[in-house]
Amino acid sequence: QVQLVESGGGSVQAGGSLRLSCAASEYTGRRYCMGWFRRAPGKEREGVAAIDGEGGTSYAGSVKGRFTISQDSAKGTLYLQMNSLKPEDTAMYYCAATGYTCNSALKLYPFVYNYWGQGTQVTVSS
User: How far apart are CA 43 and CA 57, in angstroms?
Assistant: First the structure.
């Protein structure tokens, strides 16, 4: 059972930056995927950014060029650097990990993940 704990959320003005961290209780494995998802009030959960065991990354179109996902496998930590934040980025952000070999083409889809953190709130004011 992998436990994920997010941190780094907060309130920021539009144009600002935040860095989210996700500490995993154990390294999920080289062939696994990890990702960041978000859910805004009244909206469906959506994939924001994901990384596979080979270091391949995927981003939602709405964040491409502004957000960067990275991981420190030695520390078992996943990061999301968020720059040029917009009010529409306001949401609860969740870290997720698969517990099995990940199909890299699907790594932005929530259904492939079976471990989830509790979430960290990001609020961007205009």
Answer: 24
Q: What six digits make up the tokens of 89?
A: 């980025």
% pLDDT > 90, the chain = 76
Q: Report phi then psi at 22, rounded to 5.
A: -135, 115
Give the model confidence (pLDDT) of 101-120 as tens digits. 888 899 999 999 999 999 99
Closest CA to 77 of 36, 115, 22, 7: 22
Q: Is 14 helix (H, G, I), strand (E, B) or coil?
A: coil
In terms of phi and psi (left: phi > 0; alpha: psi -120 to 50; beta: otherwise), the region of 28 is alpha
pLDDT of residue 22: 95
HEC-encoded secondary structure of 71-126: EECCCCEEEEEECCCCHHHCEEEEEEECCCCCCHHHCCCHHHCCEECCCEEEEEEC
